[in-house]
Amino acid sequence: MKVLITGATGLIGRQLCQVLYQEHELIALTRNIDRAKSILPDTVTCINTVNDADFNALDVIINLAGEPIADKRWSDQQKEKILTSRLTITQQLIEKIKLANSPPHTLISGSAIGFYGRQSSHIKINETFTDCTTEFSNELCEQWENLALSAQQYNTRVCIVRTGVVLSAQGGALAKMVPPFKMGLGGKVSSGEQMMSWIHIDDMVNIIVHLMENTALTGKFNATAPHPVSNIEFTKTLSTVLKRPSIIPMPNIMLRLLFGEMADLLIYGQAVVPERLTKDNFQFKYKELHSALSDILI
């Protein structure tokens, strides 16, 4: 298949390209072609505008592009950048799909479990959950998802992937957590009771491939491991795998000083479960946190 990928140089996109390039023709839409060529397999074609792609010849679009949500404090300017980066590229894709005589049969578009907003640790959240908390992450994901879903009116199948905390040795949240833990400075965040819905990078990529290949699937999917854990349990497991103590907590007041409003991502959480993928018999390689962290860190 001929596959256009946005966000191909990101954490998920890089790994996805490594899995797909041998069997599919890949086109990476990127702002920096030289950087993309240095990161991606040689056979990936790199372009920097949607106008350089023939949407009549594409089979699948995988839309992962967007300003990282947790790299900088959430000033009003940064929040606008996070939102606009996602909506702009998605709108460009929708316009090209609309104009195509033979549009791509599938659009797989990113989102996040932040769609659900902060939730009680006692609630297991599947894809039908509607009692979402209205806050920045929820509003961001809702606008992004609704825009992507509009491609359905042009006969393009749409799958929305609500991603949890992706665990990888190549970057992301885990790369920021490990150094202080290795120095014996790790500990629970806030109360530690907030839930963390995580997923191993291999399972994340396999979910996208699964949705790409199973054309009967459509709609919204939680891309999280079947067993979310509390921050306390995550901390203890990471400490065990690294064989380091985890006795220095990070209180709310320090989180607010360091991260401002963005600290909400750390203080609050959701217990999200991949009900639709489970019912479709998707096989997770890493269902339990200990096995996932051991694979990545040992």
How would you summarize the topology of this molecule?
Blueprint: E1 2-6, H1 11-20, E2 25-29, H2 33-39, E3 45-47, E4 60-63, H3 76-99, E5 106-112, E6 124-125, H4 136-149, E7 157-163, E8 165-167, H5 173-182, E9 195-196, E10 198-200, H6 201-213, E11 219-223, E12 229-230, H7 231-242, H8 252-259, H9 264-267, E13 271-272, H10 275-279, H11 289-297
Parallel strand pairs: 1-2, 1-4, 2-3, 4-5, 5-7, 6-13, 7-11, 8-10
Antiparallel strand pairs: 9-12
Helix pairs in contact: 1-6, 3-4, 7-11
InterPro entries: DUF1731, Epimerase_deHydtase, NAD(P)-bd_dom_sf, SDR39U1
Family: Belongs to the NAD(P)-dependent epimerase/dehydratase family. SDR39U1 subfamily.
Pfam families: DUF1731, Epimerase
